[in-house]
Description:
Elements: H1 2-18, H2 21-26, E1 33-37, H3 38-48, E2 53-56, H4 63-74, E3 79-82, H5 86-100, E4 105-108, H6 112-120, H7 122-127, E5 132-137, H8 157-165, E6 167-170, H9 177-189, E7 197-202, E8 209-214, H10 232-243, E9 248-252, H11 261-271, E10 274-277, E11 292-295, H12 302-310, E12 313-317, E13 337-342, H13 345-348, E14 354-358, H14 361-373, H15 382-404, E15 407-410, E16 415-418, H16 420-433, E17 437-440, H17 444-452, E18 461-463, H18 472-476, H19 478-482, E19 489-494, H20 495-500, H21 504-510, E20 515-521, H22 526-536, H23 550-555, E21 560-564, H24 569-581, E22 585-591, H25 614-624
Parallel strand pairs: 2-3, 2-4, 4-5, 5-7, 6-7, 9-10, 9-12, 10-11, 12-13, 13-14, 17-18, 17-19, 19-20, 20-22, 21-22
Antiparallel strand pairs: 1-8, 15-16
Helix pairs in contact: 1-3, 1-4, 3-4, 5-6, 10-14, 11-14, 12-15, 16-17, 16-24
Amino acid sequence: MNEIIEQRRKRAKEIKTYGTLQKAVEAGSLKQFQDISLSEAVVLGLLNQGVRTFIGIFGHGMTDVGEVLRIYEEENAIKTVNVRNEVEASHVASMLRWKYDEVSAVFTSIGPGALQAVAGSLVSLSNGLGVYYLMGDETSHSEGPNMQQIPKREQELFLRLFSTLGSAYSLHTPEAVFTALKRGDATVNGGVKQSPFYMLLPMNIQPKTMENCNLLEFPQKSQESKIISTDLNLFHAALESICNSTRITVKTGGGAAKVSPEILEEFLDLIDAAYVHGPQVPGLYPYSKLRNMGVGGSKGSICGNYAMNECDLMIVIGARGVCQWDSSGTAYRNAKKIININCDYDDLGQYNNSVRLQGDAQEVILKLIDLIKNAKDKSSDPEWLKECINKRNEWDSFKQLRYDNPVLEDEKWEKTILTEPAAIKKAVDFADMNGCIKIFDAGDVQANGFQIVTDEKPGQTITETGASYMGFAVSSMLAFALSEKNEYPMAFTGDGSFMMNPQILIDAVQHKLKGMIVLFDNRRMGAITSLQYSQYDKEYKTDDAVVVDYVQMAESVKGVKGFYGGETMEEFENALKQAYEYDGLSLIHIPVYYGSDELSGLGAFGDWNVGNWCERVQKLKHEIGF
Length: 626
């Protein structure tokens, strides 16, 4: 056993020194053929692709992999981050990829832990984030039910389940690891649309040794490729639509996140378009620019929805077209055509009557810019931008009225407290002033938040609207402790979202996170309560009567500092300052109003196919025909 450990230590040292197995073998530091267990091969193979961080929870289904990770961490080749919930592990891995473009691996035991991690992977699935998953699995001999397997006498049920969600592979034999790593690389690092890759490791296969394993067979990380259609007829069809349209709106989604702001601005100016963005990409085009109409969709702005509803040409860049993004297809009510730009052809097929330009968003835009500059005629309507700007002024006044009236009398709290929009605005301004990264949790805090932010550059706000996963914001903060960028995160969460994943209070101390949680407490699932009132004029089972002292909860964990946010803007601002100065994780508990007063929220300026709106929305969708 000691000899095996020493051999592992040498391989860990050499790959750390040279970066890849190929370079270490070429330098003569490692022999090309060596005896390696499957567990080590998985770790070594991921290291060969640049994966250095492993996040998760050990169980009996991952003890052998855990032993390999122990040795490799002792040699400083990898970092293992033990957390207290597999959903949290998924969120941390998603944030590492989202914010820092770092590929990490989530590890879990067999059974419930794996299912929790896969549930959390909905974030990376929905937002196009490549993450590796290592999961223990039942033994390949099927000698009898394994503890924590799906209690059904069939083969590879976890593989079947996970394959429904995305790409999955069972390491049924050790030598299958090379194919698994190649497929994993294509899934996690592929340039078209990245995604999680689920790797299942049967417990009895993990310790099996591959004799004379060829180190040069381990695949390296693929370089991201930027595709672009070579069909010039499609580009000329898009150019014709642009030249024949006078009221153009461009809307960007998460797939446009890497587009240069300067190139985007040049494109908008050339075609004289209004600009609308999805919740994921605020700041891609500065809010201060006159063409920026903010967010559009079912929780969009007055001006954002106006620009979508009234345009005659819609240009969609990097979006799946989910229900709330375009009000279930009813947002483009007067458009004659859509130009859809996307790498993924399934997403290109979202809209009928569209010119579908497949390719990297920036490359496609650059090609269109060249064609537009050489076009002879380009129609435009000078009133279009004026109309949109008037609507934006209306929207800014609408928001300002709520900021100017920040407190209301709340029945449940039995006192005058801050409204959620006013409190979020104060926290957003504080974050921007101090260069903090804002992360919004799902629910009413998120919906108000992405309407309030006015970012001037990309990357300052992260809003997980792809899966709308409650608890993502607070859990994903841990990624900032693992990064070397030294950025300060502020998680904006509601009481409902926070209680989905409160274990960050412990893990933040364990891993020395410095950041802030701002907990807006209206003692209900406010987003759903509002929807219930909008549709049926009644609330049902989304309210609660439980008073929670979140300050005391936070401070029950030694190393976390809690603050009460108060009932006035001055008290809240003072709490923000104190929380920011704390050297660790701080939490501010701020009660916020919920009620029927129209000044208490930002409302909704679109709808979608849900509840008793369905019949009307579906009818309109089919009438529009996109």
